[in-house]
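Deliverable D2.4 — example input (C-alpha cells):
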C-alpha cells in the first residue's frame, strides 16, 4: 500500500484558516478503535452457480432468495468499499501528529484521496463517542463535510458494537465520491446508518435509511430503492436470518401495475454440512396505503413463499392463490421436499 501523503502545506493552511482553526502541533497520533470488515459484512447464503438476475419467473433460483443475495451484495459494496478504500486515512492518523479543532476535537490531515480521486480529506475524533469521522472538503460550500461517521466499542470478552453512518448523498455535490460508494453512474441520495454487535455467539446488524436511493436514470433495473429498515443476525455455525424492505416496480410479470411498491423480504437459513445453508424465503407486497403508499398489486396482497436447498436452488414455491390467474404455472414442488417445516402459515 502506498504511503498516504498530506496535501500541500499551502492548501492545508488555506483549509484550516477557512475553518477558523489553528494547527497546534503535538496533539498526538490516533490510538483509538476502528472498524473491521467483519463488523459490517452481511453474509447470506451463497450461490454456487453463475448468479442470474432476480426475476419472479426464475424456476432455478427463487425470486426472494435472489433479491436478498443482490441486496446484501450491494449493501456490502457500499459499506466495505468505503471502509477499505478510505482506511489509509485512519492509518495515516495513527502515524501523524494531530491538531485541535475549535470544538476541542483532535484532527489529522488534510490528506490526498487514497485512490487518487480529486478529493481532499481529514480525519477527526467524534464528539461524544469512541471513533472517528472521515470528512471531505466541499469547495462549493467552503467547508468540511462528514462522509463517514464510525463509532466502535469493544470489551475484554471480544464483544464489539458500533455505528457506521455513510452520507451517500454527498455524492450529489462531490460526484467523485461515487467511486468510493460503487460507481459514478448512479445518483445517490440520503444516508445509510448501520448499527452492529458482534461476539463469539452472534453477529447482529440493523440498518436504518434516511431518504436513501441509488438511482440509475438510464436503466431502472440497476437502481436500488429502499422500502424500510433491515434486520440481520447470523451465528458462528452459519445459520441466520434477514428481514428487510425494498421498493421498486415489480410489474414485468403482471403482479403489479407499474407503480412503485414496497416489498418486505425475509430469508431464514440453517447451518448445514460444508457451510451450505438450506432454508426458506418469503416476499410480500401489501395493498393498503399504510404499508404500501401508492402501490397497487393487481389481485390484492401478494405473498410468495419459497424454500431452497444447500446449493441455493429453488425446491418449492407457493403464491397467493389469486395470482395463479396471472401466472397459472407459478407454483413448484411440494413442501415435504424442503429441509424442515415452513416458518410461515400456508397460503390459502
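Example output (designed residues):
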Amino acid at each position: 500500500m502506498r504511503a498516504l501523503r498530506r496535501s500541500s502545506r499551502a492548501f492545508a493552511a488555506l483549509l484550516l484558516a477557512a475553518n477558523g482553526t489553528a494547527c497546534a502541533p503535538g496533539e498526538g497520533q490516533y490510538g483509538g478503535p476502528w472498524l473491521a470488515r467483519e463488523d459490517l459484512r452481511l453474509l447470506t447464503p451463497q450461490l454456487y452457480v453463475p448468479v442470474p438476475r432476480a426475476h419472479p419467473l426464475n424456476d432455478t433460483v427463487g425470486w426472494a432468495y435472489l433479491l436478498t443475495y443482490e441486496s446484501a451484495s450491494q449493501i456490502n459494496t457500499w459499506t466495505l468499499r468505503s471502509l477499505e478504500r478510505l482506511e489509509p486515512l485512519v492509518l495515516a492518523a495513527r502515524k501523524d501528529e494531530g491538531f485541535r479543532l475549535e470544538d476541542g476535537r483532535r484532527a489529522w490531515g488534510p490528506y490526498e484521496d487514497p485512490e487518487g480521486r480529486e478529493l481532499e480529506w481529514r480525519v477527526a475524533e467524534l464528539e461524544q463517542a469512541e471513533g472517528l469521522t472521515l470528512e471531505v472538503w466541499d469547495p462549493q460550500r467552503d467547508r468540511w463535510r462528514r462522509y463517514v461517521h464510525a463509532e466502535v466499542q469493544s470489551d475484554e470478552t471480544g464483544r464489539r458494537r458500533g455505528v457506521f453512518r455513510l452520507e451517500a448523498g454527498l455524492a450529489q455535490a462531490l460526484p467523485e465520491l461515487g467511486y468510493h460508494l460503487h460507481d459514478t453512474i448512479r445518483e445517490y441520495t440520503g444516508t445509510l446508518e448501520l448499527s452492529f454487535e458482534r461476539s463469539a455467539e452472534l453477529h447482529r446488524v440493523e440498518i436504518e435509511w434516511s431518504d436513501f436511493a441509488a438511482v440509475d436514470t438510464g436503466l431502472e433495473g440497476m437502481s436500488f430503492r429502499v422500502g424500510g429498515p433491515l434486520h440481520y443476525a447470523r451465528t458462528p455455525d452459519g445459520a441466520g436470518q434477514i428481514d428487510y424492505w425494498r421498493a421498486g416496480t415489480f410489474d414485468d410479470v403482471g403482479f403489479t401495475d407499474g407503480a412503485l411498491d414496497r416489498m418486505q423480504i425475509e430469508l431464514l437459513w440453517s447451518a448445514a454440512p460444508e457451510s451450505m445453508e438450506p432454508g426458506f424465503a418469503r416476499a410480500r407486497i401489501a395493498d393498503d396505503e399504510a404499508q404500501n403508499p401508492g402501490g397497487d398489486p393487481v389481485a390484492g396482497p401478494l405473498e410468495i413463499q419459497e424454500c431452497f436447498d444447500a446449493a441455493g436452488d429453488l425446491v418449492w414455491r407457493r403464491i397467493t392463490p389469486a395470482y395463479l390467474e396471472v401466472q397459472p404455472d407459478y407454483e413448484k414442488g411440494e413442501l415435504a421436499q424442503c429441509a424442515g417445516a415452513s416458518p410461515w402459515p400456508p397460503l390459502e
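The chain has one domain: 37-46+56-337.
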